[in-house]
Every structure is written in structure tokens, then in C-alpha cells.
Amino acid sequence: MDSDAGAFVRRTIDVTVAAVGLVLLAAPMLLIGLAVRLTSHGPALFTQRRVGLGGRTFTLHKFRTTRTRIDPTALHGLIIRRHREDERPNDLPSGHDPRLTPIGAVLRNTGLDELPQLINLLRGDLSLVGPRPCLEWEAHLFPARFWQRFAVRPGLTGLWQLGSRPPGSTLDMLQSDLIYVRTRNLRGDLSILTRTLTRTRARR
Q1: Of 61, 107, 123, 171, whose Cβ has the fewest other Cβ atoms within 10 Å?
Q2: Burial 161-177 (b: 16+ CB within 10 A, else e)
Q3: In this structure, are residues 131 and 149 in contact, taking their beta carbons and an 8 Å threshold?
Q4: What pLDDT shows up at residue 15?
């Protein structure tokens, strides 16, 4: 866990990165937002309640990547077929997920859909590195021994995201979160950020 000095340095870095990022990326984000609005029905941003530091909820922002109007039978049929083929039923590849808009698939594959989370970073909802910001219903299902994950801010990236592909189970995530919280330090965060950027460039 961070000392008071470490927490101050971490928050200073978060605010600096968020502020600089929002200034430099303002024009591209505006263009992405316009593209989302012009190519599909619905708002440019997708918002969702997540659980953060201390178990408090906040509103997470992303660019919308899915259609707001879709026949649910198309998605259910795909999930059933993948289940019969003994594949991960909820792990739908971007190119086969009927919910995704054409531009949404590109945004997800490049990670550009997460750029609005710089707003969450600036506000203090997120940190650059930390546990995955979980949904409210997920948090209610976590065993009490894993609630230490809420002792730190959730992150844009984290230890679990750098694990196997496709990601492991929820239990794997929770165990990774505890390891991260108990061993957290600035040098480790720098390593996670470097590995995240390397993986992102390789994916492109």
C-alpha cells in the first residue's frame, strides 16, 4: 500500500496525465464522438455505474460502441451456437458480435473507446493503474475477503488485464487484485503501464 507521499505522487501523476491527455486529444475525441453519432442511432458516450474507492459508485464514461436498437434473438442465437461448440459463451469476438457498430468494432480493437475515461481519471474516480472498475451487481457477489480491492482506486489498466488472453475467471481477477493491492508501488505501476502500451502497439 502507498504511503501518504506515494499517494500524493500517484494522484499528481494521474491529474497531469489526464489534463495533458484531454488537451492533446480534444480534437480527435470530438471527431470520434461525431463519427459515433453520425454512423448509428444514439448518444456518442456510453455511461455506466461502477464501484470504486471505498466501495463508492461513480459513472464511467466510454465512447458508445454498440447499437441501441438490436434484435436480441441475433445475439442469443450466436451465444447458443458458441456454447454448443464448447467456446466461451460470453467472449464474443469483435467481428462477430452483432451488437457492435462498424466504428464500434474499430474503437474497441484499438482501445479508443476508453479515451473518455480521462475525465474519470481527472475527477479521481480512476487511477492510471489499479483493479478493474467492477459493476455494482458484481461487487455484491464478491466474497468479503476480496473487498480489500476497494482500498485503492480502480485503474485504466491493471495486473489482471496483462494476464492470459482471453482473460481468466472472476476469481483469477480478484486474486490478481489482492496481489496488486498488497504489493502496490510506483515502480510496479510503471512496469504495468509499459507492458500495457507494448501490448496495445503489438495488437495494432
Answers
A1: 171
A2: bbeeeebeeeeebbbbb
A3: yes
A4: 97
| Res 165 pLDDT > 80 | no
- The one-letter code for the residue type at 11 is R
Residues 19-50 pLDDT 10s: 999 999 999 999 999 999 999 999 999 999 99
159's grid cell: 495486473
List of residues 6+ apart from 67 with CB closer than 8 A: 40, 41, 42, 99, 100, 101
Beta bridge partners, 60, equal 48
Long-range pairs for 24-30 at CB < 8 Å and ≥24 separation? 25/115, 25/118, 28/115, 29/115, 29/116
The closest alpha carbon to 117, from 125, 129, 106, 109, belongs to 125
- C-alpha grid cell for residue 53? 474507492
Q: Supply the pTM of this predicted model.
A: 0.82
Higher confidence at residue 160 or residue 79? Answer: 160
CA distances in angstroms from 180 to 138, 151, 170, listed in the order given: 19, 11, 15
Cα atoms in the Cβ-side hemisphere of radius 13 Å centred on 82: 15
Q: Within 13 A of 180's CA, how many CA atoms are on the CB side?
A: 31
